[in-house]
Amino acid sequence: MTITRILFLLLTSFYFIPNVVAQKQKIWFDTDMANEMDDIFALTRLLVDADKYEIMGVSSAHFVNVDLMLSDKWNQYPTKGINTVKLSQEENEKLLQAFGMMNLPHPMGAERPMGQAWGGDTPRPSEMTKKLIEVVQAMPEGEKLDVLFIGVATNIASAIALEPNIAKKLRLFCMGMRFDAKEKVWDKNEFNIRGDLNAVNYLFNNPDIEWSIMPAQTCEVLTFDREDTYARLDSKYPVEKLLKQRWVESNPDDKTRIIWDLALVEAYLSPDLAKVKTVKTPPENHQHKVNVYVKIDKEKMFEKFWEKVKNYRGKR
Prior knowledge:
Elements: H1 3-21, E1 26-31, H2 38-47, E2 54-60, H3 67-70, E3 73-74, E4 77-78, H4 84-99, H5 127-137, E5 145-149, H6 154-162, E6 170-175, E7 178-180, E8 185-187, H7 191-195, H8 197-204, E9 210-214, H9 216-219, E10 223-225, H10 226-232, H11 238-250, E11 256-258, H12 260-269, E12 274-280, E13 289-296, H13 298-312
Parallel strand pairs: 1-2, 1-5, 5-6, 6-9, 9-13
Antiparallel strand pairs: 3-4, 7-8, 10-11, 12-13
GO molecular function: purine nucleosidase activity
InterPro entries: Inosine/uridine_hydrolase_dom, IUNH, Ribo_hydro-like
Protein name: Inosine-uridine nucleoside N-ribohydrolase
């Protein structure tokens, strides 16, 4: 082999290696942003590290509960004629604007759960399902999209029901349900699950789905103090102004709040801060294995969030 040939091979090798290393994990984020104040903290945590990943979409999810029919208001929103997914979409766009990331795809999800009140898995097509399917189908063979959803499972389950072949190209991460790690017992009596039990059962009954679940009792230890939070936030930065505004508008009288969804996002971004067990699905569903977060390092998650927010200052 000539010297020229050897040099050519070395140069082309160095050209291709960085391209392999530089490949970023693709992520999709689905949130019922208008439902509670923790969602904005969770999405903020992801977006401050957006340069480390390839965020393929941020979509809005509906939320539903009996209080929407019986009460005059849900947090700051009047319930008369309420369209929860539209509210979530508006809140998503406010945060994306604050980050200067309106260029990210941000389709709106479905307005209602899958199936009917008595069951069923009729999908709910939406701009979200259309875009998610398009993204997954365009991905190279062997590559997977990580989907984080912190509300109802409607949008994700509907996309899979509409195009079942995308299931094997997804890795799902969600906040929802309850799980007794000692007794290995599931409990679906949890807000996000009650919002679309049909969608959750559809996902549990699909063995092709790779799924990691953050149960409520695992993440409920992650709490923020109101006055401490206000003191840490500097309203001259658009993102931090929105974070404070969300607490002021949604839960002004609460001295502390559980920041449920942030636990899932941090566990995903920093796997060393969470303990995971592989367990069987609920007995009423198809029997296969899923991953469950059974413990988190709440102190380090708390510290990392504020460190990341502070370090983001000046970038926007």
